[in-house]
Design a protein that fits this description.
- The complex is a heterotrimer.
- By secondary structure, chain A is an all-alpha fold.
- In chain A, 88% of the residues lie in helices and 0% in strands.
- Chain A has one domain (2-222).
- Chain B is α/β, with parallel strands linked by helices.
- Chain B contains seven helices and ten strands.
- Chain B has helices at 43-51, 72-78, 94-104, 111-120, 136-149, 166-181, 193-197, and strands at 5-14, 17-27, 32-36, 58-63, 66-67, 79-82, 154-158, 185-189, 202-207, 210-216.
- In chain B, the strands form two sheets. Chain B has a six-stranded mixed beta sheet, sandwiched between helices.
- The longest helix of chain B is centred in the C-terminal third of the chain and has 16 residues, at 166-181.
- Classes of the chains: A mainly alpha, B alpha/beta, C mainly alpha.
- The interface between A and C is medium-sized, with 34 and 31 residues.
Chain lengths: 225, 220, 238
Amino acid sequence: MDDLKDALSIFKKDLLQEWRSKAVTVATVFFASIVLMVLAFALGSNDTVLKIAAPGVLWVALAFAGIISAAQSYQNELEENALEQLLLYPIARSSIFLGKLLANWFYMSLLGFILVPVTSILFKAPLGSNWWLILVVVLLGTLGFSIISSFYAALTANLRARESLLPVLMFPIVIPILQAAVKASRELMTDNNPAIVFDWLQLLIGFDLIYFVVTLAVFHFIMEE
Amino acid sequence: MSPAIELEHLSRRYGRQYIFSDVNLIVSPAKTIVLKGNNGAGKTTFLKVLSTRLRPTSGSAKVFGFDIKKEASEVRKQTAYLSVLGGNYQNLTALENLKFALKLSKVEFSKEQLLDRLEHVGLIDAKNKMVREFSSGMKKRLSIAKLISVDAKLWLLDEPFAALDSEGKNLVDDLIIRAKKEQRTVIIASHDVERSSQFADTVLSIEDGSLKLEKSLNNG
Amino acid sequence: MPKQPMWLNVYGFVVLVLFLLGMYLGLVVSPPDASMGELIRMIYAHVAVAWVGFLAVVLAALHSMLFLWKANFKDDIRAVAHAEIALVFAGLTIASGMTWSKPTLGVFWDWDAKLTLTALLASLLVGYFIVRGLIDDPERRGRISAVVMIIVMASLPFNYMAAKWFRTLHPAKSYNVDATGLSSTMSPVFVKILLFNVVVAAMIYIYFFIQRNRIGQQEAELFEKETELDVKGDFIHV
């Protein structure tokens, strides 16, 4: 489908930009490292505490990364007014949303795949036999988060005070997504009960689907001026 | 012959202020129009409304018969807008920028054609350089390369001569002459009224919120 | 500014009287509850403002959708009026909830699902008003805040689930919507007084909505008048 092709063109362009500038990569690796280290130091004396904290640490680091990446994806369009050009091409508005969503999801889940083993090791929370499930949790959780972060990044892109506004607006909306992701991750990193994980996964899928449809439906309204 | 542009009671407000109001204009195809006005008078806003970038506050506008509110995507297919700020990506090369623009503009192209365009605007040597390293004149030339690569019936040029050296300005002159030959409708918003008026069939001005006719060189 | 219509004055007076009656019923007529004792009196107020607050959010979202659809500024003004009242009622819900909570549970806050949801709602509404404050252009402001309100509305069920399962490890398989705050063992006199107070709260809401809406509509008319550009454009054919 044409719209998907356009979205992929935008996705590839964003990846290329990031590959060259590494702005998101540097910032997210930095934040993730700080979060992991500070919390490891703070909780490090007791292995049980570390293990309990592991899923939370993972998702805090990912949440920071998600916000940074979403904010940057629209920043790229604001220098030299490139966003305006994007809006003047004969493409669907939704392609822009989709392309940037894919880019943000990509960064966030890539970081997630790296952080899972790192957190698991540093925080003494072994993954057990169903370890592949946590990758599914990461994919679905980062998808939901990216949908919201990409959407609000687009909304705040042209507003004053956008850097501080993005997390303020997003925060209450992503809480359910983060909660499901953390709880599913906890099952896999501590108690290892796949049945419960599947329940949380179902919830995540529901969130992702509904928010995807809603944000896609209203996206073009926030792009018009 | 159906008009290229039809505006009826068109107005655009921003906040408390009307930028322009009650604009009634019919433009026949293949005309070249110069739009003059002081800084902040509303030339850019006017062009942006025509391009569908901004919605009108009230009134109606049709470009080649397509309503800019209801059939905006059709309008965009026929229109090319050369903006003051280039719209180029800093971390991409000239070639990459051009390729991306043409892909999204749904234009078929070959590598040779891309290089040909860059040659035409004098950027062939800079084809693999990042736009980050470009001078403002070079960025303008890149935007022009994008403009001439899509086959748009309506050209909206916002200060096309700005940031260019004399060679660049000559390039724009040739561009406008060629556009006239190719029967494109061209609207130029420019400070350099003398230079742009050389080719103009009509000169319009925006002043205190209304559009006025200054000079019409040919009949109709 | 036109004078307040007579029927509005009468209505306001009636609402005031009913409010006092509701207070009397709750504070004097109602017997103490078997389990809660005197604190049942707080529940009348708490549940009333909670229900009305959520109703206000739904109406705000509805008018936001209407605005996006029809682009009629009246809907934007109505959405704002509903949202403002929703925020006030959400605040009242939290305050009354905390007041009930301290003597009953010993703490001001115990992460009760409904109160947590209300707190999240309040912060979402604050976000709505921040966004409105940042956009000067009326058309854009109306559109963007309408979108924000729609997402706020969409988030409520999810936030409720999150608040409910905050302390649990396992999301409940069978999800029963117990948002009423009513215990099924409540005796009829309590239910009657509660419902009376809920109706009164709704009437108070309507009164404030009408007033706020009137002010908003008149502000908008004034804005239109002041910003009108009285030019007669030439007809140009080239």
